[in-house]
Amino acid sequence: IPETAGSAARHRMDLKAKPLGSLGALEDLAVQLCAVQKTLAPRIERKAMVIFAADHGVAEEGVSAYPPEVTARMVDTFARGRAAINVLSRLHGLDLTVVDMGVRGAVTPQGQIVNKRIGPGTRNSALQEAMTPREALESLRRGREAFQEVMERGGPVDLAGFGEMGIGNTTAASAIIALATGKTASEVAGRGTGLDDQGLRRKIEVLEKMIALHGAPPGERLDGLAILRSVGGFEIGGIAGALLAAASARAMVVLDGLISTAAGVIAVMIEPAVRDYMVVSHASVERGHRAACEFLGVRPLLDLSLRLGEGSGAALAMPVIESAAAIMREMASLEEAGLVPPPGLIPPTSI
Amino acid sequence: IPETAGSAARHRMDLKAKPLGSLGALEDLAVQLCAVQKTLAPRIERKAMVIFAADHGVAEEGVSAYPPEVTARMVDTFARGRAAINVLSRLHGLDLTVVDMGVRGAVTPQGQIVNKRIGPGTRNSALQEAMTPREALESLRRGREAFQEVMERGGPVDLAGFGEMGIGNTTAASAIIALATGKTASEVAGRGTGLDDQGLRRKIEVLEKMIALHGAPPGERLDGLAILRSVGGFEIGGIAGALLAAASARAMVVLDGLISTAAGVIAVMIEPAVRDYMVVSHASVERGHRAACEFLGVRPLLDLSLRLGEGSGAALAMPVIESAAAIMREMASLEEAGLVPPPGLIPPTSI
């Protein structure tokens, strides 16, 4: 993204009829969106939400409060339009797609479920690599493809949210964040869907095993693809691929919570330019989320104590991002409101 | 609000197809809304935003970075549909009304501006009481009337946001908060529209004068009306009156930043039951806002570093509140999703 689009947008925002900086995070969002869309009049017409679902071999280790069967049950609930993300997508006008990247149980093909299955879940990453190198690449490719199909079906996407479903995936995401940032197991482990103290201790032990098994040798660093292959999930690879596709199409991307932000970490390790297109929708209750946001250098927009996933936080952030676009487009300048710009902010003739 | 409506709603929310508590603040909002509307299927059909504008005698003391003329300019900008709050109201479907409670300059009667003028601004509260006892009561009465007229014009309001415009009103609001909570001038003073360090020191001195002049004698406490009269503004009284009217009509009310939350403090001092109807939309950058929220016992929903006023933060919070209502109404239960409720959460037959 050229620096000039951003600085012209910042200048225009500074000249709006308001005290300098008084719209806080909305101003930064508007400027980012102008840079993404290369315009001073950003528009958000089509909003898409894509949920990637898959199962995780590491769930065998007893790291979740729920059994793996729940992944398929929730995918069915998405298909029937009754989960939280369906409700939020209807309310906020998001075009919702659910992508089966490798759910373990049988998924009934119905509604908006897209089949991009790689296999019936990953292998147990506490014992071996979660995916083969080929599967890891395939997860990225199919995620990219799924997003491209969303665009082929309904036209260009201005704002794309990414969510997930997969029992065991807070463990996979926490391991990704630990391997990418160098944090320890206890610095990234959270309670997921609701582990008690004993369950959390167990999850930390499993994460320690995963980090010991897959961590880089001293003095070396893992690349994004190696981290994805060793501990990641098919849905996490899918989101990373979709993020790359969305950024290529100049869509603003909205990450949800722990898992989709971990996918953001993988995507940025593969292609650092993707970061300019990203918004992190909310601060998750999960511990590892903060480390992932710091790694990305992105401040979460909302803090509603969410820990559901499904893209629910991303859906809630979208009206805020739309607000930023509308402010940039429609709000009067100081001059139009009959007010005097503060000294030093006289518009250059070039704008 | 009966306790039973809230606890039945909490139980129903606990049985939704999600980990217990995983929708965080959205769950609390949904439960509050059920209690306000006395239903387990809350609806938000009509959303209203009412902006109260007035000038402040205390502006003479040099407590703002902008001159009082700006109040009238911004009211004109509201009327022409070009301010931030117009943009946000259009985007989020809010019925916007602007109420002139006593702007100093000439306000051209146009568009949605309602005339409830008490006078050309308050008196200088650093030297004397801002209002006569009669004016204070009148500000409450006219605010109440303005909200009732919004309902008469367009039907019942489910969600009501209150914003303001008035150069000098962060000083008035900070003084209200200091007098209500016992905080000192420097604990409640902020930079308003953009004071520099010297301006902030000046504002603290003026606030110290106001607190010394109007504070209660040792061992006594001021009531809400006395605080409003001594340091408040016509627009702050207007918001307080509108809050009382909205709660009477069982509308959920959304406070904006420092000034409307100070009006919330006045309203709750007059009628403590109003608190059950309140949401504080966002944490303002202004220092005194935190003290006001603590006084009300309400946690702000968003934190976007806003300090514009106009109701902008309240407008941004509305889609989150609508989301909470939709989740409560439309999301599947655990049972409907084919999932097992956690032990201890078997629904009682009475629900």
From TrEMBL, chains A, B:
Annotated signal sequence range: none
Catalytic residues identified in the record: E310 (proton acceptor)
Top-rank taxon, per record: Bacteria
Entry's family note: Belongs to the CobT family.
Function: Catalyzes the synthesis of alpha-ribazole-5'-phosphate from nicotinate mononucleotide (NAMN) and 5,6-dimethylbenzimidazole (DMB).
Protein name (record): Nicotinate-nucleotide--dimethylbenzimidazole phosphoribosyltransferase
Organism expressing this protein natively: Alkalispirochaeta sphaeroplastigenens
Top-level taxonomy: Bacteria, Pseudomonadati, Spirochaetota, Spirochaetia, Spirochaetales
